[in-house]
Amino acid sequence: MPDRLSSLDLTFLKAESPATPMHVGTVDIFEPPVHSDDEFDYESLVALIRDRIAFVPRYRQRVQQVPGRFAGPVWVDDEEFDITFHVRRSALPRPGTHSQLLELVARIMSRRLDRARPLWEMYLVEGLQGDRFAIISKSHQALVDGNSTVDIGQVVLDATAHPRETPTDTWQPDHPPSALELLAGVFADATRHPTAVLELARAEMASLTGSTSVREVIGDVVGSLVAQRHAQESSLHVKTSGQRRFTTVQTDLEDFRTVRAMHGGTINDVVLAVVAGAFRAWMMTRGEGVGPTRSVRAVVPVSIRDDEDEEPTSLGSSVIASTVTLPVGENSPVMRLHQISYQTKVHKDTGRAVSARSLVGIAGFAPTTLHALAARVATATVRPIDDVVITNVPGPQFPLYAQGAPMLASYPVVPLMPGQGLSVGVTSYDGKVSFGLNADRTAMPDLAVFAQCVTDALDELLDTTKGSRNRATRGRKKPRSTKKAGQ
């Protein structure tokens, strides 16, 4: 019998709406292949996906409902699978600017995926300045669980300019099960797993209330009342529309290491401190109060070592949600960093935190899968009182390639939770730290201002380290701009 969607997967499908698409995206920017005789075009991308898609069989399956909905839907092979429907081609008017690319990303990410087909899309965007191109991908949160399925971005990238050989793909779709076979599978599952019916009921309840127990329903009512008062004080809580605005910030990893060396903590702590400083400055530009007690509640998924309490992933780690209070009311950037480090130290002291070195050492690792897992966890655990989701994934500090084309930058696109106006995705890769800022288009017309506040907050922290080294060695003679990212 085909695999059945988990109760969590079912919740993602039922919670999706035109205002809150439940897909995770990535924007990767590439230079032309290193070998002058090679060329990367649409046909190259289609051929690459066709060679590698066998490693992620879920990407050729669609969701099939059970008659009468007596049980959750199942994954079945798409007999009409058309790779050219999922891998698409677009182009910017040459020479395409980074701003034009960001506008295209926002429009692509605003559209929901077709439920009648496998739940993913990939776009080749040609025409960028300097003969560069971009690959935009998006996968539904029900698709990537990190166990049976990783993100397709993890299998299309290579560690060298010479693509690895893959076995010949002999895939033939299985015929979808009949209505009788689907119903027989329901009874078989109920016999083998008596709790399956209960789990389905819990998932149905979650789709209606956002909770899975009476206690949580009551807690959500109370939390909503608290959130209403909290929302009156913060422009981060909005009526989410169906349209998005996306921008990026690219910074140097060495800057974060300098701050860590001077003030302690981890790179992740410094990233969170930078985001906290950006929120503080951005709120001030909006005329919002940032008194000493002002804070932003951030859901920050983190990786932990597998054990019996969490469902293991094929990556060798599980992802759980952690809530960090960003002290935006604190005037001192160093004190903000220390307060954040104190909170995250509780997690590190459990001894189960996975180090960045361990994560990037995973064979074939690409940040896309962990961003997808982080978004799944955040979606399942976020509460009305939470302000923002921040995913920070360490990537490899060496170049990755797609069919010989070197990847210059990778920006995550983390979905918005209902009622939230902004999500922040962060990826460190090949000496850079790249921020992907996904926002509600109506609620945050000043997203570019927040992006500038990110670079300013990092510079503010760096100013506190100038006594330990010569600032001139950083090699920056003028402020960085988000428009420079990926160009």
Strand arrangement within the widest β-sheet reads 4-5-6-1-14-13
* Overall pLDDT confidence: 81
The arrangement of helices and strands along the chain is: HEHEEHEHEEHHHEHHEEEEHHHEEEEEH
CATH architecture of the largest domain: 2-Layer Sandwich
Number of helices: 13
What is the count of β-strands? 16
Which sheet architecture does the biggest sheet show? 6 strands, mixed
Top-tier CATH class of the largest domain: Alpha Beta
Uncertain residue segments? 207-229, 304-317, 349-364, 470-487
Rg result:
22 Å
Structural class: alpha+beta
Describe the protein's architecture and organization:
The chain is of the alpha+beta class. The chain folds into 3 domains: 7-179, Chloramphenicol acetyltransferase-like domain (Chloramphenicol Acetyltransferase), CATH 3.30.559.10; 180-211; 216-465, Chloramphenicol Acetyltransferase. The chain contains 13 helices and 16 strands. The chain has helices spanning 7-15, 42-52, 83-86, 98-110, 179-192, 195-209, 214-233, 253-263, 267-285, 333-348, 356-360, 367-381, 447-463, and strands spanning 23-30, 61-64, 74-77, 87-96, 120-128, 132-140, 244-252, 296-299, 302-305, 317-320, 323-326, 388-394, 401-402, 405-413, 422-429, 432-440. The strands form 4 sheets. Strands 4-5-6-1-14-13 form a 6-stranded mixed sheet. A 6-stranded mixed sheet has the order 7-16-15-12-8-11, sandwiched between helices. Strand 5 and strand 6 form a beta hairpin. Helix 1 packs parallel to helix 6 (195-209). It starts with 6 loop residues before the first helix and ends in a 24-residue tail after the last helix. The model is unreliable at 207-229, 304-317, 349-364 and 470-487 (pLDDT under 50).
